[in-house]
Amino acid sequence: MQNLSLDTTKDELLLELQRKGIHDPAVLSAIASVPRERFVHPAFARKAYNDVALPIGLDQTISQPFTVAYMTQSMQLQPGMKVLEIGTGSGYQAAILAAMKCMVYSVERHEGLSERARSILAQIAPSVHCRVGDGSLGWPEESPFDRIIVTAGAPTVPEPLLQQLRIGGMLVIPVGDDKRQRIATITRNAIRGFNQELSPFEFSFVPLRGEQGWDQQRADWNS
Predict the structure, then answer these.
(1) Is 116 in contact with 88 (CB distance < 8 Å)?
(2) pLDDT along the chain (223 residues), means of 10
């Protein structure tokens, strides 16, 4: 990797993210500090700093850097926050959160992906806690969380995740159909319950699977 010839440099990526509206210096610093090339398949390593999603196997992808930066910026993170990530995937988003000095708990349903991510995170962000399980149900034993981020598209917002937010906490999740979604930013309010805002533009995520994801949605349709 030391002599890797990149299509796009990290500095060029950072400029592109700023042009697209990423202005939080802590987010940009985290993007700058985490080696994305460690999380992509070696066949795509030269494209590590292109602003595109890349395949990582098992029909999963490492998200486009802008998507990671946008969702991270939307979370309004502060050092020391306890963050739950649903969908470990490559481990890149978890590493970004750890670089922002958050306590990170990450759930992945694919055991193979989780094991691979753990081995990389052990070297880059060893403080990240990983487990294999149904992410749509969250991680109740470790709740409540200051922030929850879901890196897969959901048909609706899973109720277990809402209930695992502390008062004042925030959930960032793509919601829509199985092709296109908008990012919902949901804040738990002690008086009014939950407030929600939607991103002005659409994204495309892999589907959220599990009891509170697309698996249950299809079961409801077929019942």
Answers:
(1) no
(2) 78 98 98 96 93 86 96 98 97 98 97 96 97 97 98 95 96 94 95 89 92 69 37
What pTM, to 2 d.p., does this model score? 0.93
Q: Which of 29, 63, 90, 106 is catalytic?
A: 63
How far separated are the first and last CA of the chain, in Å rounded? 51
Cβ pair 81, 133 in contact under 8 A: no
**Token pair listed for 156:** 């609706």
Burial level of 185, CB count in 10 A (0-12/13-18/19+)? middle
C-beta separation of 192 from 177 below 8 A: no
Q: Exposed/middle/buried for 220, CB within 10 Å: 0-12, 13-18, 19+?
A: exposed
Residue position matching structure tokens 């949605």: 217
Q: Is 63 a catalytic residue?
A: yes
Q: How far apart are CA 27 and CA 65, in angstroms?
A: 11
Judge contact between 129 and 119, C-beta under 8 A.
no
